[in-house]
Amino acid sequence: MRSSLLALLSLALMAVAPAHAQEASEECTVGQLEMTSSSSSSASPSRRPDSSATLAKRSTVTDPRPAVSVAPTTEAESFVQDRIEEDGLHVVHFWAPWCANSRNELDNGWAGLVADNPDVTFTFVTVWNDDESGAAMLNDYNLPDRVVEVTQPDLGPSDKEANRRYSFLGLPVTWIPSTWIFHSNGELAFAMNYGEMEMQTVQRLLDATSADW
Protein backbone atom coordinates (compact mmCIF):
# COMPACT_ATOMS: atom_id res chain seq x y z
CA MET A 1 0.00 0.00 0.00
CA ARG A 2 2.80 2.40 0.95
CA SER A 3 4.68 1.73 -2.29
CA SER A 4 1.55 2.26 -4.38
CA LEU A 5 0.78 5.59 -2.74
CA LEU A 6 4.36 6.76 -3.17
CA ALA A 7 4.17 5.80 -6.84
CA LEU A 8 1.01 7.86 -7.28
CA LEU A 9 2.61 10.83 -5.53
CA SER A 10 5.66 10.50 -7.75
CA LEU A 11 3.49 10.57 -10.88
CA ALA A 12 1.70 13.63 -9.60
CA LEU A 13 5.03 15.34 -8.98
CA MET A 14 6.17 14.70 -12.53
CA ALA A 15 3.26 16.78 -13.77
CA VAL A 16 4.40 19.81 -11.78
CA ALA A 17 6.79 22.27 -13.41
CA PRO A 18 10.13 22.83 -11.62
CA ALA A 19 10.38 25.78 -9.29
CA HIS A 20 12.73 27.54 -11.69
CA ALA A 21 13.00 26.64 -15.36
CA GLN A 22 16.35 25.12 -16.21
CA GLU A 23 18.46 27.77 -17.86
CA ALA A 24 19.21 27.17 -21.51
CA SER A 25 22.88 26.75 -20.75
CA GLU A 26 25.12 24.05 -22.12
CA GLU A 27 26.94 24.02 -18.82
CA CYS A 28 24.16 22.58 -16.69
CA THR A 29 22.76 20.06 -19.14
CA VAL A 30 23.96 16.90 -20.82
CA GLY A 31 23.15 15.49 -24.20
CA GLN A 32 20.25 13.08 -24.51
CA LEU A 33 21.03 9.56 -23.40
CA GLU A 34 21.74 7.31 -26.35
CA MET A 35 18.93 4.78 -26.37
CA THR A 36 19.32 1.42 -28.09
CA SER A 37 16.35 0.64 -30.32
CA SER A 38 15.57 -1.29 -33.47
CA SER A 39 15.75 1.91 -35.53
CA SER A 40 19.12 2.95 -34.17
CA SER A 41 20.44 -0.58 -34.59
CA SER A 42 19.49 -0.62 -38.25
CA ALA A 43 21.12 2.79 -38.76
CA SER A 44 24.37 1.65 -37.13
CA PRO A 45 24.59 -2.14 -37.48
CA SER A 46 28.19 -2.26 -36.27
CA ARG A 47 27.41 -0.63 -32.93
CA ARG A 48 26.73 -2.94 -30.00
CA PRO A 49 24.88 -1.89 -26.86
CA ASP A 50 27.13 -1.54 -23.85
CA SER A 51 26.87 -4.65 -21.66
CA SER A 52 26.89 -2.66 -18.41
CA ALA A 53 24.08 -0.44 -19.70
CA THR A 54 22.08 -3.53 -20.65
CA LEU A 55 22.62 -5.00 -17.18
CA ALA A 56 21.54 -1.75 -15.54
CA LYS A 57 18.42 -1.60 -17.71
CA ARG A 58 17.51 -5.17 -16.81
CA SER A 59 18.03 -4.55 -13.10
CA THR A 60 15.71 -1.53 -13.12
CA VAL A 61 12.95 -3.76 -14.45
CA THR A 62 13.45 -6.82 -12.27
CA ASP A 63 14.73 -5.39 -8.99
CA PRO A 64 12.84 -2.93 -6.76
CA ARG A 65 16.22 -1.60 -5.62
CA PRO A 66 18.13 -1.17 -8.90
CA ALA A 67 20.73 1.22 -7.49
CA VAL A 68 21.98 -1.41 -5.04
CA SER A 69 21.80 -4.32 -7.48
CA VAL A 70 24.39 -3.07 -9.97
CA ALA A 71 28.15 -3.19 -9.61
CA PRO A 72 29.62 0.26 -8.82
CA THR A 73 32.03 1.60 -11.44
CA THR A 74 33.64 4.35 -9.34
CA GLU A 75 34.52 5.02 -5.71
CA ALA A 76 31.75 7.63 -5.56
CA GLU A 77 29.18 5.08 -6.66
CA SER A 78 30.47 2.53 -4.17
CA PHE A 79 30.25 5.04 -1.31
CA VAL A 80 26.69 6.09 -2.18
CA GLN A 81 25.57 2.50 -2.67
CA ASP A 82 26.82 1.53 0.79
CA ARG A 83 25.12 4.57 2.30
CA ILE A 84 21.67 4.12 0.76
CA GLU A 85 21.60 0.45 1.75
CA GLU A 86 21.55 1.44 5.41
CA ASP A 87 18.30 1.91 7.34
CA GLY A 88 16.77 5.35 7.08
CA LEU A 89 16.13 8.10 4.56
CA HIS A 90 18.87 9.21 2.17
CA VAL A 91 19.14 12.21 -0.15
CA VAL A 92 21.61 12.07 -3.04
CA HIS A 93 22.12 15.40 -4.81
CA PHE A 94 23.95 15.87 -8.12
CA TRP A 95 25.49 19.28 -8.80
CA ALA A 96 28.54 21.16 -10.03
CA PRO A 97 30.09 24.34 -8.61
CA TRP A 98 30.21 26.05 -12.04
CA CYS A 99 26.52 25.46 -12.76
CA ALA A 100 24.39 28.57 -12.14
CA ASN A 101 21.32 26.45 -11.38
CA SER A 102 23.25 24.49 -8.77
CA ARG A 103 24.44 27.69 -7.12
CA ASN A 104 20.93 29.17 -7.16
CA GLU A 105 19.59 26.10 -5.41
CA LEU A 106 22.33 26.25 -2.78
CA ASP A 107 21.43 29.88 -2.19
CA ASN A 108 17.75 28.97 -1.80
CA GLY A 109 18.04 26.91 1.34
CA TRP A 110 19.93 23.62 1.21
CA ALA A 111 21.67 24.41 4.50
CA GLY A 112 18.32 24.98 6.22
CA LEU A 113 16.82 21.81 4.76
CA VAL A 114 19.74 19.75 6.04
CA ALA A 115 19.51 21.35 9.48
CA ASP A 116 15.76 20.62 9.64
CA ASN A 117 16.26 16.90 8.90
CA PRO A 118 18.89 15.56 11.31
CA ASP A 119 17.82 11.94 10.76
CA VAL A 120 18.32 12.08 6.97
CA THR A 121 21.69 11.50 5.30
CA PHE A 122 22.72 13.95 2.59
CA THR A 123 25.32 13.11 -0.05
CA PHE A 124 26.32 15.72 -2.64
CA VAL A 125 27.81 14.15 -5.76
CA THR A 126 29.94 16.61 -7.72
CA VAL A 127 29.76 15.74 -11.43
CA TRP A 128 31.21 17.04 -14.72
CA ASN A 129 33.85 19.05 -12.87
CA ASP A 130 37.14 17.59 -14.19
CA ASP A 131 37.26 15.24 -11.19
CA GLU A 132 37.66 18.23 -8.83
CA SER A 133 35.88 18.45 -5.48
CA GLY A 134 33.26 21.11 -4.85
CA ALA A 135 33.60 20.99 -1.07
CA ALA A 136 34.94 24.54 -0.82
CA MET A 137 31.78 25.98 -2.35
CA LEU A 138 29.56 23.86 -0.12
CA ASN A 139 31.41 25.34 2.86
CA ASP A 140 30.74 28.83 1.48
CA TYR A 141 27.02 28.06 1.62
CA ASN A 142 27.26 26.86 5.23
CA LEU A 143 26.23 23.28 4.66
CA PRO A 144 26.63 21.28 7.88
CA ASP A 145 29.62 19.01 8.28
CA ARG A 146 27.40 15.94 8.12
CA VAL A 147 26.78 16.60 4.42
CA VAL A 148 29.21 14.30 2.62
CA GLU A 149 30.60 15.38 -0.76
CA VAL A 150 31.98 12.83 -3.22
CA THR A 151 33.35 13.44 -6.70
CA GLN A 152 32.29 11.41 -9.72
CA PRO A 153 35.14 11.22 -12.24
CA ASP A 154 34.57 11.60 -15.96
CA LEU A 155 36.27 9.81 -18.83
CA GLY A 156 38.23 12.90 -19.89
CA PRO A 157 37.88 16.70 -19.86
CA SER A 158 34.38 17.47 -18.59
CA ASP A 159 33.71 20.29 -21.04
CA LYS A 160 33.22 17.62 -23.73
CA GLU A 161 29.86 15.94 -23.19
CA ALA A 162 31.15 12.70 -24.69
CA ASN A 163 33.46 12.35 -21.69
CA ARG A 164 30.74 12.83 -19.08
CA ARG A 165 29.16 9.93 -17.27
CA TYR A 166 25.43 10.05 -17.98
CA SER A 167 24.41 7.59 -15.28
CA PHE A 168 25.01 6.85 -11.62
CA LEU A 169 24.50 3.35 -10.22
CA GLY A 170 22.68 2.46 -13.42
CA LEU A 171 20.17 5.32 -13.16
CA PRO A 172 20.26 8.27 -15.61
CA VAL A 173 21.68 11.64 -14.63
CA THR A 174 20.25 13.99 -17.26
CA TRP A 175 20.33 17.41 -15.60
CA ILE A 176 22.07 19.18 -12.78
CA PRO A 177 21.06 19.92 -10.19
CA SER A 178 19.14 16.67 -9.63
CA THR A 179 17.95 15.21 -6.34
CA TRP A 180 17.12 11.61 -5.47
CA ILE A 181 15.46 10.30 -2.30
CA PHE A 182 16.06 6.70 -1.21
CA HIS A 183 14.40 4.65 1.56
CA SER A 184 13.75 0.99 2.40
CA ASN A 185 17.46 0.14 2.29
CA GLY A 186 18.07 1.40 -1.23
CA GLU A 187 14.68 1.76 -2.87
CA LEU A 188 14.33 4.94 -4.94
CA ALA A 189 11.28 6.87 -3.74
CA PHE A 190 11.65 10.06 -5.80
CA ALA A 191 14.00 11.30 -8.53
CA MET A 192 13.82 15.00 -9.39
CA ASN A 193 15.90 15.09 -12.56
CA TYR A 194 14.83 18.35 -14.15
CA GLY A 195 16.71 21.13 -12.38
CA GLU A 196 16.23 23.42 -9.41
CA MET A 197 13.80 22.50 -6.66
CA GLU A 198 12.14 24.62 -4.00
CA MET A 199 13.27 23.36 -0.61
CA GLN A 200 9.69 23.23 0.65
CA THR A 201 8.91 20.79 -2.16
CA VAL A 202 11.85 18.58 -1.22
CA GLN A 203 10.71 18.75 2.42
CA ARG A 204 7.21 17.60 1.47
CA LEU A 205 8.67 14.65 -0.40
CA LEU A 206 10.88 13.74 2.57
CA ASP A 207 7.83 13.92 4.84
CA ALA A 208 5.82 11.73 2.46
CA THR A 209 8.60 9.17 2.18
CA SER A 210 9.09 8.89 5.93
CA ALA A 211 5.40 8.95 6.88
CA ASP A 212 4.07 5.95 8.81
CA TRP A 213 1.32 4.87 6.40
Can you put this structure into words, describing what you see?
With 213 residues, the chain is α/β, with parallel strands linked by helices. Helix content is 35%, strand content 16%. It is built from 8 helices and 7 strands. The strands form 2 sheets. The chain has a 5-stranded mixed β-sheet, sandwiched between helices. Strand 2, helix 7 (135-140) and strand 3 (148-151) form a beta-alpha-beta unit. It is globular and about 40 Å long. Residues 1-26, 30-52 and 54-60 have low confidence and may be disordered.
Secondary structure layout plus pairing:
Elements: H1 2-14, H2 38-43, H3 51-62, H4 75-84, E1 89-95, H5 100-107, H6 110-116, E2 120-126, H7 135-140, E3 148-151, E4 167-168, E5 171-172, E6 178-183, E7 187-192, H8 199-210
Parallel strand pairs: 1-2, 2-3
Antiparallel strand pairs: 1-6, 4-5, 6-7
Anisotropy-based shape = globular
Mean pLDDT: 79
How many helix segments? 8
Helix content: 25-40%
Distance between the termini: 8 Å
Radius of gyration: 17 Å
Low confidence ranges: 1-26, 30-52, 54-60
Strand segment tally: 7
Oligomeric status: single chain
As a percent range, the share of strand residues is: 15-25%
Q: What is the H/E string?
A: HHHHEHHEHEEEEEH
Class by alpha and beta content: alpha/beta
Which descriptors apply to this entry?
213 residues; alpha/beta; two-stranded antiparallel sheet; 8 helices; 7 strands; 16% strand
